[in-house]
Amino acid sequence: MLTFDEKTRYSRHLLLPEFGENGQRRLKESSVLVVGAGGLGSGALMYMAAAGIGRIGIVEFDTVDASNLHRQILYGTDDVGASKLSVASRRLRDINPLIDIELYEERLTSENALDLISDYDIVADGTDNFATRYLVNDACVLTCTPNVFASIFRFDGQLAVFGAEDGPCYRCLFPQPPPAGSVPSCAEGGVLGVLPGILGTLQATEVIKMLAGLGEPLIGKMLLIDALTMHFKTLRISRDVECAVCGERPTIDKLIDYESFCSGIERSDPADRSQSLPDPLDSSPQTSTESNNLLFSPQVSLIDVHQLKEMRESGEDFLLLDVRQPEELSVADIGGVSVPMNELPERLDEVAPDKKQKIVVMCRSGVRSANVAAWLGKQDYENVHSLDGGILAWSQHIDSTIAVY
Known about the structure:
Structural class: alpha/beta
Strand order of the largest sheet: 3-2-1-4-5-6-7-8
CATH architecture of the largest domain: 3-Layer(aba) Sandwich
Distance between the termini: 48 Å
Order of helices and strands: HHHEHEHEHEHEEHHHEEHEHEHEHEHEH
Radius of gyration: 23 Å
Strand content: 15-25%
Number of helices: 16
């Protein structure tokens, strides 16, 4: 039964004939695990707490950064440097002290995911990397837990419910992750500040609908949002009977090493990867049979930022090749020759005609530069290195006046 305080707080829900006291009681008795308290998680968590979901778990290990504040509305300027989990829990308990908030200040891993997820009725995936998305998906399928999924990129968003009974899972749509480094994160590609709020609120809507038994959830459908044109489109997606995790003959019955899986180490593609580089602005994940793009090579030669500094100061002859996008250069630039990664195959003779020249490739964090360095090696360049940690490491260890993003 609902208490007097609960009836007062949720009165606008109770007035909805489709919702009523039964729906609110179902929310009170339900639980949801939110993986990630960033941009998506901020909006989703606040509205789910306000709605009265009885128990909300949050998995988050990060701290608040100033670059978060334009989109992660759980946090304020005074929270910079603080644990996201502690700030989020305080804010959510202020929004609704009648619910339980459970905190997990740790990474979601193959070792803890099944135990965490199996203790909740539904999962809201607010992560921003492919390794955790596949981990959440597989753990949800293995524990029979619906997964309300959302993703964002620049001005575009996606929303779907995966892992529900008779519905598809994330792997049905994307059996394989895109090549490592081919799809930039928000930190590399940017994101419209309001977009994660829109998608996070829609995630909360789907969670509330499913827990309260309302309406028609996005099972077997994906909502696509283009914020620039304000165009919404719903696509039908089907369960793949050959899916490795939810198909009729699944080959995945336990959680795997998702970092290796998404780095390409466990994948094999006979296609020739020597002629093309992944487009860093292509936000459409491809299966391995559709892509002949370079996969990350762990054999790439790395140099650190201290070595680069010494090379510059000594006047050593080398080419510093920055493969980031022009928009990134406007935020942080330490010189060198700028050629976006996706333009390099057409401009290679212009930029580096001498295959014996020493080349140091750099990007934001070192992922794209490692891809490019490996690709240059396949083009018979003899002295190519990737800057370990990229411009983030340069800012941290060499020049703190260089902005991070």
